[in-house]
Amino acid sequence: MHAAVIHFHTLEVYARSIYSCGMEPEVAKYHLGALALAVADSIASVSASFSPSGPGTAVMVLLSMEPGLPISVLATSIGLSHAGTVRLIE
Length: 90
Prior knowledge:
The structure is a single chain. This protein has 90 residues and is mainly α. It has 2 domains: 2-50; 55-89. The chain is built from 5 helices and no strands. The protein has helices at residues 2-21, 25-50, 55-65, 71-78, 82-89. Helix 1 (2-21) runs antiparallel to helix 2 (25-50) and helix 4 packs across helix 5 (82-89). Keywords: Plasmid. It comes from Raoultella ornithinolytica (Klebsiella ornithinolytica). This is MarR family transcriptional regulator.
């Protein structure tokens, strides 16, 4: 979490330098795009550390959308064998 704070501070300094330089619109467009990409990467890396993933999460999402799906449909959807899906659900 501390690294994310440092990274956002770097973005803040970068954004201020873009504003104070008085760049040409064409150059500013590329700098703004780079800044937006850096912000998106920061958000993705921080949110990835908090979000669950894997077949267990996939099963929970599928069952929340379609309660009562048969094991065979779940197994095909998440790419596990029938037995593996049964073990996962248990």
